[in-house]
Amino acid sequence: MSKLSQLHKDPLLWIFLVFALYPFLPYFGNFISLGSELLLWFIFTLSFNLCLGQTGLPSFGHGAFYGLGSYAAAITFLRLSDKGFFLPVLGGAVVGCLAAALLGWLIKDKRGVYFAMLTVAFTQVCFGVCWRWDEVTGGEAGLSGIIRQDFLGISMKDPQNFYYFCFVIFAVCSLLIRAISRSCFGLSLQSVRQNHLRSQYLGYPTGLYRFAVYSLSGAFAGLAGALYCLLTQSAFADILDWQKSGDVVMATLLGGGTASFYGPILGSFIFIVCRSLLSSLWEHWLFIYGLSFVIILSFFPTGLMGILQKKKGRSKSS
Amino acid sequence: MLKIKDLDIFYGQAQVAFKTSLAVKEGEFVGIFGRNGAGKTSLFRALMGLRPPAAKGDITFKGRNVQGLPPHEIANLGIGWVPEDRKIFPNLTIRRNLLLGEKAEKHLSKGKRRFKLDDAYRFFPKLHELRDKLGSQLSGGEQQMLTVARTMMGNPDLLLLDEPTEGLAPNITKDVLKMILEIRADFQVTTIVVEQFSEALLQHLDRCCVMEMGECIFDDRPSALQNDEELKRRLLGVG
User: Fold this and answer.
1) pTM of the predicted model, to two decimals?
2) What is B41-63 written as a DSSP string?
3) Which residues pair with A88 in a beta bridge?
4) What is the Cα–Cα distance from A191 to A187, expressed in whole angstroms?
5) Under a CB-based contact definition with an 8 Å cutoff, are residues A160 and A23 in contact?
């Protein structure tokens, strides 16, 4: 009962409420596809934050799993499935998970800059393969011809219906990721982030934990990539570029992923809205975005959520 | 319970322990004394499988050779280490720090009384009072209490205490020592404690060793060391 009475204090509930009403919001409601992209970016950045904020893994190549998920969905849709949604979305998550597991197993014991650079290198390898492998990925031309069909009798050609499809997946993923963050497993990940050696002599196989969270994070990133493929009804190698991985790192840090679970949501909201709306007003919008990033992170390393938390005098762990 | 035989410990080319041997029986309370640099902490690090240092020799715990095993496996076999510099998790609350010490049931010895969160709060009421504070907000003495309690939360069969009272104010030292002795008496945990020297601790030990320059030069009853003024003065700089 007390939990129910505290429900209104749950920020996720308010996020759900705002995005459930998104198509009806003034101004923003005119950009339904932007809303869908926001939702899948939330999944993407939350998945990334499982690595960075929760475990301290500087995975600067997370775009690889997003991109591979997108390709997996496209290939599944075009070649294997009955043109339904289930298999492409599942395919994206599975391929993202497998790719992350493969890389994670190889680099689970690497730390700091070595870990970061190996993830970047992996992304560039994936980018190169997708860019050149014409027979499977369509090479430079990418894969297109993905036409959203009905799902459970609801037409997904309607952008609003597809938005709500993304919304449901976002709701499930965010609840799942939050449950993982707050579980014993999540607590152990925090200890690995703070000091892997301390965790080891307390009995935690830190390499295995890093591998597990990386694979899990790859699955969510792959799922977000699959949704992106269904949103744009195509898959291109561009999204595997290292720049995509940089975008997710910047959005997560700007929002305050290291200080709060909700930081990546705030960060990706700012990034996507700036990119989509500000860019139409001023082509050099990246200048403002980059400058804001430098200023905020210089003075507040824990990002925007860190500032808010400081203001409230609350600590992340309480 | 623990048998160390002919253990050599190295940091790169430098050898810091030479053919060290030590045997600890179940339930024993053993003290290892020695000046800074004698090799006490290196011995504990080698016991926990931490690298560096590199170690050569036999370490048998509960009949199993643990030499070369990774730290988490050694910890899960039942060795709990309280490091000298109170390695707590500064950005986690006290409660979460304590919960991190818990181990899965499969790693615990059967039929033994379990040290639980309530026990941690019972022995260290201060931790209960501060349970929602972050680790970084604790004083040195409180951090030490937290480290001991966190290690006990893993219900180790063998507790390694590395200079548990180092750098603490005399009254806090007394409190921490009292708690450690109470926990030991209550949970019958086999313990090895490392200190430069502690007169207060001596009377509670079953046995004590003295290390000098990486060698164990004394292994006897505490009373023998207590009465050996020359050894205390020469090796430990006290008395």
Assistant:
1) 0.82
2) HHHHHHHTT-SSSEEEEEEEETT
3) none
4) 6
5) yes
Q: What are the tokens at B111?
A: 């039929």
Residue of A198, A202, A260 to mutate, testing the B interface (most B Cβ within 10 Å of its Cβ):
A202
A257: Cα separation from own chain's centroid: 12
Residue B102, Ramachandran bin (φ over 0: left; ψ between -120 and 50: alpha; else beta)? beta
Rounded to whole angstroms, the Cα distance separating A310 from A219 reads: 33
User: With contact defined as beta carbons under 8 Å apart, do B233 and B225 qualify?
Assistant: no
CA nearest neighbour of A109 among A210, A213, A215? A210
Integer Cα distance of A191 and A183 in angstroms: 13
Digit-coded pLDDT (tens) for B53-72: 888 888 999 989 998 899 99
CATH architecture of the domain B2-236 equals 3-Layer(aba) Sandwich (3.40)
- Nearest-Cα distance to chain B for A197, in Å, is 8
**Local structure of A309: helix, strand or coil:** helix
CA distance A58 to A211: 13
Tell how far CA A153 is from the center of its chain.
28
Instruction: Give the relative orientation of helices A112-132 and A86-107 as an angle to the nearest 10 degrees.
Output: 140
How close B104 comes to chain A (CA, Å)?
10
Domain ranges in chain B?
A: 2-236
CATH topology of domain A2-312: ABC transporter involved in vitamin B12 uptake, BtuC (1.10.3470)
What distance in Å separates the CA atoms of residue A256 and residue B11, rounded to the nearest whole number? 40
- A44-73 confidence digits (pLDDT tens): 999 999 999 899 999 998 999 999 999 999
Contact list, A189 vs chain B (CB under 8 Å): none
Closest residue by Cα to residue B33 from B205, B144, B198, B204 = B198
Residue-wise pLDDT tens digits, A190-234: 999 988 888 888 889 999 999 999 999 999 999 999 999 999 989
Which residues have C-beta within 8 Å of that of residue A264, sequence separation ≥ 6? A42, A45, A46, A48, A49, A53, A251, A252, A255, A257
B9 strand-pairing partners: B17, B55
ω into A159 cis (within 30 of 0): no
Q: Determine the Cα–Cα distance for residues A106 and A110; give it in Å rounded to an integer.
A: 9
Backbone angles phi, psi at B36, to 5 degrees: -55, 135
8 Å CB contact of B91 and A194: yes
Name the residue with tokens 């095993």.
Answer: B69
